[in-house]
Amino acid sequence: MYDYLIVGAGFSGCTLAERIATVLQKKVLIVDKRNHIGGNAYDYYNNEHILVHKYGPHIFHTNSHKVWGYLSRFTEWNNYFHHVLGYVEGKLIPVPFNLNSLYAVFTESYAKKLEEQLLQQFGYGDKIPILKLQQSAHGDLQFLAKYIYDNVFHGYTTKMWELTPENLDPSVTARVPVFLSRDDRYFQDIYQGIPKFGYTKMFESMLQSPLISVALQTDYKDITDIVSFNKIIYTGPIDAYFDYMHGELPYRSLRFDFRTIDTELEQSVAQINYPNNHLYTRTTEFKHLSKQSHAKTTIAYEYPQRYDKLVNEPYYPIPQHENTELARKYKKEAEKIQSTVLFCGRLADYQYYNMDQVTARALSVFEHTIAQS
Ligand SMILES: Cc1cc2nc3c(=O)[nH]c(=O)nc-3n(C[C@H](O)[C@H](O)[C@H](O)COP(=O)(O)OP(=O)(O)OC[C@H]3O[C@@H](n4cnc5c(N)ncnc54)[C@H](O)[C@@H]3O)c2cc1C
């Protein structure tokens, strides 16, 4: 008899399993239909023994002392700051577009003029969403906004979502703002790093309590009649739980093409974005993240795809008003059964959470709901 059946062994499921076992001393069965733990943050050594991220590159960054402290109980960290370059007009320029990018694409004198105008209008260190920069009344800044929109945002966003930036929630383009700084790091959070021995090792450490049992390649629907438990915590897609009674929630999916080549390091930084000329959106070289020393290197080429629940994985919720409304209908259904089933996580909340946000959410659900019941 288990106190909790947890569906999904990603960040959400592992955090909740660990808290319930360690703090409440209760028995947990955590199941995942995949053949591994870790959810989308799963990493593994490929045939060449290079550590790669199966579902795309995962860079940990947070301003939350609480989340960083919590996860640091289960892993040490590689001191890693993410750097991204964008392939624009035959050059590799810093992304997010910043003051250094200005000098990479324009002549020195024109870049200087634009820099001065930007700093007159905004402050050094400001992060300006492109849709806001486009509203600038100043002629040169209008030109700059159009340049950045056309060369950095439009192609990438259209490839990524099959939608133009205007047709998505403004939060999407605001995730990669124009940054009025010389700081080329992709994130400025206080805490940044990659688990020193990989994400999967960190999750193994989270699940090591004898009160936690793990069942892989197990759809929870196949075991609810044969296993007894008091309560379910569900971290899978919320629409699937309710058998799509209000229709399917749309997702964007991805395909990764992993290529291993006979060279120690191919790229100067972990990630290169291709907003314009290629079918893939970005390439990621994992050895920059793991700091692994190896004679060969593996690079993932990332191709956005339409999502079909019978064919591929649901990666990103599509941030549009009508989808949020549909998700709300499912959340109402979830409220009706909240005494027996708790919904928590990226797919269960239909929210684009980063890893730190999803961990913070799981810790909050534990403290405010589970530990109080
Ligand atoms: C391409 C990509 C890159 C990302 N990069 C970053 C990054 O750099 N930094 C960052 O902070 N965040 C990143 N994220 C976000 C990060 O992946 C998520 O925040 C995190 O993995 C969500 O954890 P979760 O446990 O809620 O969901 P998931 O990791 O999706 O776990 C849910 C689990 O539930 C299982 N499941 C579903 N249905 C069932 C069922 N019926 N029975 C059993 N099991 C089931 C699934 O198999 C899955 O393993 C990225 C996401 C993507 C898609």
Q: Keywords, please?
A:
373 residues; alpha/beta; Rossmann fold; 7-stranded mixed beta sheet; 5-stranded parallel beta sheet; 19 strands; binds flavin-adenine dinucleotide
Helix content: 25-40%
Helical element count? 12
The CATH superfamily of the domain at 2-37 and 207-248 and 318-370 is NAD(P)-binding Rossmann-like Domain
**Beta-strand percent range:** 15-25%
CATH architectural designation of the domain at 2-37 and 207-248 and 318-370: 3-Layer(aba) Sandwich
- N/C terminus separation: 18 Å
Description of the structure:
It is a single chain. This protein is α/β, with parallel strands linked by helices and 373 residues long. Among the domains are: 2-37 and 207-248 and 318-370, NAD(P)-binding Rossmann-like Domain (Rossmann fold), CATH 3.40.50.720; 84-179, no CATH class. Helix content is 32%, strand content 22%. The protein contains twelve helices and 19 strands. It starts with a strand and ends with a helix. It binds flavin-adenine dinucleotide. The site of flavin-adenine dinucleotide (FAD) has 34 residues, from helix 1 and helix 12.
In short:
The protein is of the alpha/beta class and 373 residues long. It has helices spanning 11-24, 65-71, 99-105, 108-121, 130-133, 139-161, 171-174, 199-206, 238-241, 287-290, 321-336, 355-370, and strands spanning 2-7, 28-31, 43-45, 51-53, 60-62, 77-78, 84-88, 91-95, 127-128, 178-179, 191-195, 212-215, 229-234, 251-261, 271-273, 282-285, 297-306, 316-317, 341-343.
